[in-house]
């Protein structure tokens, strides 16, 4: 698989190097270190967005933006992980009224 994008040089510490090595060994198809690092960064960004949303630091919109996921996929993840929605009754009613006004 050819990956396109910007090349960024990053120095990692011994702990991160061990993590990359462990994940490389777990992969059946023998993914290279660059692929493992990309996956870890991607997963880490989703984790941090979910954590920030769960703690109330991020709105659902900001969290989905930071995770680079569609809203529906992010909401599915929150449900899978048991993260309660931060949308209160007033937000839902306001959204419903705005929706009605569109039609």
If you had to describe this structure to a student in words, what would you say it looks like?
The protein is mainly alpha-helical and 103 residues long. The chain has one domain. It has 5 helices and no strands. Helix 2 packs antiparallel against helix 3 (60-67). The longest helix is centred in the middle third of the chain and has 22 residues, at 33-54. The relative contact order is 0.08.
Layout of SSEs?
Layout: H1 14-26, H2 33-54, H3 60-67, H4 71-80, H5 89-102
List keywords for this structure.
single chain; 103 residues; mainly alpha; 5 helices; 65% helix
Work out the helix count. Answer: 5
Helix content: 55-70%
Instruction: Kindly report how far apart the N and C termini lie.
Output: 46 Å
- How large is the radius of gyration? 19 Å
Please tell me what the overall shape is. elongated
* SS elements, strand count: 0
**Helix and strand succession?**
HHHHH
Number of domains: 1
Beta content comes to under 5%
Secondary-structure-based class equals mainly alpha
Low-confidence stretches: none
Mean pLDDT: 86
How many strands, what sense, and barrel or not for the largest sheet?
A: none
Structure described in brief:
The chain is mainly alpha-helical and 103 residues long.
């Amino acid at each position: 698989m050819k990956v396109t994008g910007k090349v960024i040089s990053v120095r990692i510490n011994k702990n991160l190097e061990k993590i990359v090595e462990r994940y490389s060994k777990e992969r059946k198809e023998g993914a290279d270190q660059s692929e493992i690092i990309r996956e870890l960064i991607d997963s880490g960004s989703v984790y941090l967005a979910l954590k920030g949303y769960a703690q109330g630091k991020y709105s659902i919109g900001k969290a989905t933006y930071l995770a680079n996921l569609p809203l529906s996929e992010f909401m599915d993840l929150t449900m899978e992980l048991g993260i309660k929605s931060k949308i209160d009754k007033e937000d839902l009613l306001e959204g419903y009224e705005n929706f009605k006004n569109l039609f």
